Amino acid sequence: MEEGTYVNIENLRKMQAGLSKDQLYDLLGRPHFSEGLVGVRKWNYIFQLPTGNGHYMTCQYQVQFDADMLAERMHWRESSCAALLEPQESEPTRMTLSADTLFDFDSAQLSHEGQQRVADLAGRIRDDFVEPSVMVVGHTDRLGSDAYNQALSERRAATVRSALVSNGIAPMTMQSRGVGERQPVTHCEGDRSTPGLKACLRPNRRVDVEVSGEAR
């Protein structure tokens, strides 16, 4: 796992002493270094943490366990990584929409329900922010080729951006981009496209709408 994974920042903020290994697994996923099977007292991870403006920092994180195999201490290799977990006043508000709700299978055209979801989101943005700046980011799961997933994520992000414009969000305040399968929020075993694997990967098929600006 030299490249690391894109972890849910809110899950990292929930880390505390006393958590079991099962609880850590649910929050952070499996450790990224093979350190044996029995009596392991340290788990090491590599995470890609957002620094703002679409950029990321590679950070190494270690969890140490006590004799009862409960989390005892957590450490970042670099202190600058720990600082990225502190909420910033300028940190954008992220609103996540499920792609399975917005679009039909393998489509970048909004479904009827998807149109309503985007209209509701546009109303929330207008009501909650003064002169907002909006970034729409499309994501896919890992099923299919890299090139196909990248193109689909870009088309879906562009579709949501256009729908927000149609619902009163100024086009000059918005950007869109796709990142394909590169930023999963959940990890699932298996390579065959089975119904179970598709269901497990559902959280990765999404559109994130990041809104910056003064709150009303």
Automatic annotation (TrEMBL):
Q: Which GO terms describe its cellular component?
A: cell outer membrane
| Compartment(s) of residence | Cell outer membrane
What is the superkingdom listed in this entry's lineage?
Bacteria
Q: Transmembrane stretches, by residue range?
A: none
Among InterPro entries, the record links this protein to: Bact_OuterMem_StrucFunc, BamE-like, BamE_dom, OMP_bac, OmpA-like, OMPA-like_CS, OmpA-like_sf
Major location category of this protein: membrane
| Database matches in SUPFAM superfamilies | OmpA-like
What are the protein's UniProt keywords? Answer: Cell outer membrane, Membrane, Signal
**Residues annotated as domain OmpA-like:** 90-215
State the Gene3D superfamilies in the record: 3.30.1450.10, OmpA-like domain (3.30.1330.60)
- Name of this chain's protein: OmpA-like domain-containing protein
